[in-house]
Amino acid sequence: METLSKKDFQAIFSALKSMSESQKEYLIGLDSVMGDGDLGLTMAAVFKSASEFAAEYADDEIGSLVMKAGITMAKAAPSTMGTLMATGFMRAGKALKGKDTVNAADMADFWRAFTDGIAERGKSKVGEKTIIDALEPAARVLAEQASSGASLKDAMAAAKDAAFAGVEATKDMVAQHGRAAYYQEKSRTAQDPGATVGAMVIQVFADYVA
Amino acid sequence: METLSKKDFQAIFSALKSMSESQKEYLIGLDSVMGDGDLGLTMAAVFKSASEFAAEYADDEIGSLVMKAGITMAKAAPSTMGTLMATGFMRAGKALKGKDTVNAADMADFWRAFTDGIAERGKSKVGEKTIIDALEPAARVLAEQASSGASLKDAMAAAKDAAFAGVEATKDMVAQHGRAAYYQEKSRTAQDPGATVGAMVIQVFADYVA
Amino acid sequence: MKKFLNKPETFVDDMIRGIMAAHPDKLTYVNDDLRCVVTAKVKKGKVGLATGGGSGHLPLFLGYVGDGILDGCSVGGVFQSPSAEQMLEVTKAIDSGAGVLYIYGNYGGDIMNFDMAAEMADMEDIRVEQVVAGEDVASSKKGEEHKRRGVAGIFFVYKVAGACAAAMKDLDEVKRVAMKACDNVRTMGVALSPCIVPEVGKPSFSIGEGEMEIGMGIHGEPGIERGPLKSADEVVKQMLDAILADLPYVKGDEVAVLVNGLGATPKEELYIMYRKVDEMLKEHGIKVFHVYVGEFATSMEMSGASITLLKLDDELKTYLSMPANTPFFEQVQL
Amino acid sequence: MKKFLNKPETFVDDMIRGIMAAHPDKLTYVNDDLRCVVTAKVKKGKVGLATGGGSGHLPLFLGYVGDGILDGCSVGGVFQSPSAEQMLEVTKAIDSGAGVLYIYGNYGGDIMNFDMAAEMADMEDIRVEQVVAGEDVASSKKGEEHKRRGVAGIFFVYKVAGACAAAMKDLDEVKRVAMKACDNVRTMGVALSPCIVPEVGKPSFSIGEGEMEIGMGIHGEPGIERGPLKSADEVVKQMLDAILADLPYVKGDEVAVLVNGLGATPKEELYIMYRKVDEMLKEHGIKVFHVYVGEFATSMEMSGASITLLKLDDELKTYLSMPANTPFFEQVQL
Ligand SMILES: Nc1ncnc2c1ncn2[C@@H]1O[C@H](COP(=O)(O)OP(=O)(O)O)[C@@H](O)[C@H]1O
Ligand SMILES: Nc1ncnc2c1ncn2[C@@H]1O[C@H](COP(=O)(O)OP(=O)(O)O)[C@@H](O)[C@H]1O
Ligand SMILES: [Mg+2]
Ligand SMILES: [Mg+2]
Ligand SMILES: [Mg+2]
Ligand SMILES: [Mg+2]
Fold first, then answer.
1. CB distance D328–C291 less than 8 Å?
2. Measuring from atom 6 of ligand 2, which residue has the nearest CA?
3. Going by fewer Cβ within 10 Å, which terminus of chain B is more open, N or C?
């Protein structure tokens, strides 16, 4: 599968919904360590609404499908990750504006816009124990892979590995944002829930094109 | 001494001042049991100002001397007994209006007006553990003595005894007014400080005419 | 005792100095006595309105001195009556020939001193009339209304009497309107925690964790029921049922409502209470003309609230609606 | 936890229901969502002013929606940001063609969501500008003003921007005036006791008996000094010295002052504090244009206070002086 169509994106949103449902309790647990424990709930709500929206989407253009799915997410859940995830999809959608198909290079653009959008909205950067620690390495790897002509499948697989490596790396970072930041040095050893979700979302894409 | 002149009243106010100074600590102690302990201070302040006012008083009319001494007292001390004592003298002064001399019958009018004024202002009556329990029996005895033609000296001596008997009686009353009333049944065995002061004031008059 | 103060003895005077410094265009004092507070602009020919009472209840009492309400206030120590002399000085300062009306709460010391002040004012040929506000239905049973404590409801009496005086009515008329407000106002309060008188330094009473006292007075006077803290809706129902039954307020009546915080209770909770008040009044077919929510009569940092209803007729509505402007209370024409 | 509430989960919605019931002529909500609060009378052609933030700070934030100030407010859970979606709905409701200005405090969640809302509004062709208020000098050192928390000083930003919009100025002009206020305002706070988030049920931090924390944030963010509670004059001096040095405010400046109570602290104490503020400003040759004392930004039943100075020029004076009228804040023309 070298290019994705609108139908594929509809399927991906549906897979994101399934993933968020099956991972709900796990994410609640992660977010309960130094957060308010709502992450599993908000992700399930966010992807449920996005998947329902995508399933009904009539047009063939992928850009606006993704962007409007992002808007839908924003309305579904008010917590930090709800807003950030919505931002990511809105920005990624804008990057794909006008496209009816998505190849590896487009996918690299997608995740670059996704990542930069979240970094901008969250005023966060690599090393601050957030979702950016999963997204940034993945976006960078994807860009490299795409420019060296890798297949969509291989590029996404590499991106997924980079994202999970990023999640691992959060286990030695002090939180700079959100509730976990109140814990300061004590937050160091915890795995960041937002980064985890970020990697899981990338994995859904990677698994779909595999 | 069958009639009192303005000079006598000036002397009586001076004697009230001396009495209130010598009894200061005793009254503070009494008012500390179930009150705020200020009674010794307020009585000293009240009679100091009244005596200073009386000493300077030029006219011969006793009524307005007494009434204005009362007003002076009101300005000197804001606590309950300050106001009540001031009221007593103001009303007694009004009762003596126009008089340059005071006989036994006038003295009976004085204490009747004094007592009624306080009862009216304090909305209090006999048996409620207040200064009225000293004043009312004294005023009643004075009226009887005066109408049966007793001398001023004998009448005041009888009034003094009645007042102190009234003070004794407060040792078996439950306080209905002021701070002591918060103690309800627990207030019963205490001697009422206000009644005590009332009897002491009458005693000053009785001692002067003796 | 955790309070911002310098010395307990200077608590009241420091407070008044702060008030005078903050609002020099609106308030001043007479007789070189900080505790004789009067409006900065006495209006010629208007009936003067004076109040007074102990400190610790801001905005009561001095907070209602200003345009369209009161003209003067004598200020006592915390929970203590001011002196008759102070009341007299205020009276002299605010009388401009039309006489003065005293409006104050039903407390022994205040009554005694205002009576005395009225007597002294009379000697100075100032005509004084008095209205004593007492509307706490928990403080005395029906039939003994004259024994009831005056609490937050006095605000309504000030407001309508003040507007009536501002309309240049004469003393008898202002007194009549004030008494009409007194007759038509009812309050009930609930306390969750005590407060501390600075010179005492510790709470004068205690309420257990998880307990409330319905009907408690603003100086800690005993209420009618102490028990476990119930839900806001249940607390309001108990209070409002008692108020409604007392006047009684009936279907078709039109009222103004005051939900008053005693000090520490946040506005969030007062509005949660009002939600239920509104629901119940609708159920009873009682129309709401205007709603006041906030701190109108407090006990320093006591936590708790009171609910007051004022039954209105056209006259009271007119006076309630008129503007007022003090450092503590501003209202534009309703 | 001693609070008047029904269920912790319904705390915010019950509160808003109470507010809507009490002030139906002034406030309403859009999108069938109680938490999208807007003025009952949107003025055609006027720049719309929106704010938003967590609950638990009344009169912040929704209390400043009304004539002459703000037009709309999105309301979050206690100490939680409202959603971008709610902000967008408010934006749509109050835009009447002249665009909308967001004014809100410098908190991560709020910023993220307002940014998002602005982006969404842009997609709907509504022009939105943003001003983030942050003036707590204790929350970040000089040179890092952009990191400072927004606290009670945001009231001044609302007030002047609101008056500017009411004067029918355009969006750029209203934004400029709001930013000018931001540049000229400084706040410092002190806390004596914590508060309880209803859904949590216990205090999120503690301050020892006899202790105070200078610079603590209104959600309990750490301050700059914890130590024994000092006298009111000493506390004020420490706070005001820091404020004066920061801008710096200098001799000849003219300021408006806000002494704000955090919830449980009575007005008596706020005025005791103001007494010292006034004395110090006089010593520094700084002129006081107007003084506000009361609860303008709270943390439910937290006890504590903050002091805010706004340095004025003629333009800010004009806008500060204009009337305003909301259910929580009334001001006649100064
Ligand atoms: N400013 C930020 N920028 C990027 N990511 C952030 C930021 N703040 C928080 N996050 C991410 O959000 C995650 C928590 O999300 P969520 O549970 O929705 O937060 P909350 O419930 O506190 O609103 C964190 O683990 C972190 O990865
Ligand atoms: N309503 C009243 N009528 C008559 N006497 C009263 C009344 N209330 C209090 N008293 C008297 O006042 C005395 C206390 O006086 P004082 O110490 O001046 O009171 P406080 O310090 O509480 O103002 C009481 O012992 C009682 O005799
Ligand atoms: Mg969370
Ligand atoms: Mg959350
Ligand atoms: Mg005493
Ligand atoms: Mg006393």
1. no
2. B130
3. N
AA identity, residue C1: M
Same-domain pairing of D199 and D176: no
pLDDT digits (tens, 9 = 90+) for C48-85: 999 999 999 999 999 999 999 999 999 999 998 999 99
Neighbours of C178 (CB within 10 A): 29
- Whether B179 is in the pocket of ligand 2, judged by its Cβ within 6 Å, is yes
Q: What is the ipTM of this complex?
A: 0.89
| Cα separation, B99 vs C94, whole angstroms | 35
* Protein residue closest via CA to atom 3 of ligand 2: B122
Nearest residue in D to C210, CA atom:
D2
Domains in chain B, start-ordered, CATH in brackets? 6-209 (1.25.40.340)
Residue from D157, D219, D226 nearest D186 by CA: D157
For residue A73, the chain D residue with the least C-alpha distance is: D85
Whether B44 and B35 have beta carbons less than 8 Å apart is answered as no
Owner of token pair 């499908």? A65
Determine the structural domain holding residue D232 and report its residue range.
185-326
CA separation for the pair B54, B56 (Å, rounded): 5
The distance from CA D300 to its chain's CA centroid, rounded to whole angstroms, is: 14
Give dist(CA B204, CA B209) in Å, integer.
9
D144 inside domain: yes
Q: What are phi and psi of D82, to 5 degrees?
A: -70, 170
In-domain check, residue D205? yes
Which among B78, B87, B90 has CB closest to C83?
Answer: B78
The answer to whether the CB atoms of D112 and A77 lie below 8 A apart is no
Using CB atoms within 10 Å of the CB of residue A118, give its burial: 0 to 12 exposed, 13 to 18 middle, 19+ buried: buried
Closest ligand 2 atom, residue B193 Cα: 25
Determine the Cα–Cα distance for residues C248 and C284; give it in Å rounded to an integer. 12
* One domain for residues D30 and D106: yes
What span, in angstroms and rounded, lies between the C-alpha atoms of D224 and C204? 34
Residues in chain C with CB shorter than 8 Å from the CB of B78 are: 76, 80-86, 113
* Distance (Å, whole) CA D80 – CA D9: 13
Residue D135 and residue D310: Cα distance in Å, rounded?
10
Which tokens go with C63?
């907070």
| pLDDT tens track for A59-116 | 999 999 999 999 999 888 778 999 999 999 999 999 999 999 999 999 999 999 999 9
